[in-house]
Amino acid sequence: MPHANAADLKIDSAMTLNQVKVGCDVQIRILSGPGCDRLRDMGFCEELQLRKLTSGRNMICSICGTRLAISKELAEQVLVSPVK
Description:
The protein is mostly beta strands. It is about 15% helix and about 35% strand. Strand 4 (about 60-65) and strand 5 form a beta hairpin.
């Protein structure tokens, strides 16, 4: 799927964090995969809002006022939707 702006998505649609453009605010919907426990330990949990700050080999997200870096592999396990 090509990169999409959060504003271009329908409220009930979801995409992985890798697919979100830098600078978009999104809400975590589902954590799905083998790294879910690790993500939750880092502060990623369902219904929480975050902003994607950078993209690349590792991406940086702002979540609850803290910047966290995660790998592309972990970002694939984070399903997000646009902020309501």
